[in-house]
Automatic annotation (TrEMBL):
It is a peripheral membrane protein. It comes from Paenibacillus germinis. Belongs to the ABC transporter superfamily. Pfam families: ABC_tran. Its main location: membrane. This is ATP-binding cassette domain-containing protein. It is found in: Cell membrane.
Amino acid sequence: MAIIEVANLSKSYGELNVLKQMTFQVEKKDVVAVIGPSGSGKSTMLRSLIHLEQINSGTIHIVDEVLVKDGIYAKPSEIKRITSKMGMVFQHFNLYPHLTVRENLELAPRIVKGEPMTGFRKRSLELLEKVGLSEKALDYPAKLSGGQKQRVAIARALMMNPEILLFDEPTSALDPELTGEVMQVMKNLAEEHMTMIVVTHEMGFAREVANRVMFMDKGEIVESGHPQQLFTNPKFDRTKAFLNVGL
Ligand code: ADP
Ligand code: MG
């Protein structure tokens, strides 16, 4: 079974149908770039996977477990356990301003029952090293650049040893000169075979790092394929129009 299986996922806000019968799979070690116009439902789709949004109907399996089946959710304790297999990185970092970098990393494992109290310090320092920020462990987020904040957010998402990482436009809030350092960290994770879904406007990243690109429009997956195929030879007019490939 795929590591993520979504079938007929639909989600509305009141009268507005934001996701329409979405069906897709993500295999272990996939790096899926999700592209599409603003308002097409990309964030809602990611947020639904990790249960930051409740869907109206459909089925989501995460790592062989049922998060929601035909619109019926697992028990709250199960939902928590299943969604903890994923980490998420947001456009605006969402770091806690009153905690140091190291404390930002250590907060979630501390409040999750069952995690031993020892070991966080070692892991947080290892992960900060991995994202090139060892020397910032004791600083507060306000002292960091946007690129550094996002690298902290990625390290924080890794603290719980997720099997899947979800990224929602991780470089959209950054000055262009700072996107590279964040992309590099993500590229390294891809090379270590982390399963990733990345909503992004960075077509370079989609081309070079993703093994699959999924184009969404108006709450639907219009087209999904290998970057080479999708970027050079899109099948549908909506994809061509978005990518500005001659119609
Ligand atoms: P994208 O990430 O592709 O830009 P979103 O998933 O953020 O798209 O939004 C899809 C649609 O859902 C948009 O029309 C947006 O206005 C609407 N939407 C998103 N969140 C909410 C919400 N909490 N309440 C009402 N409408 C929402
Ligand atoms: Mg969005």
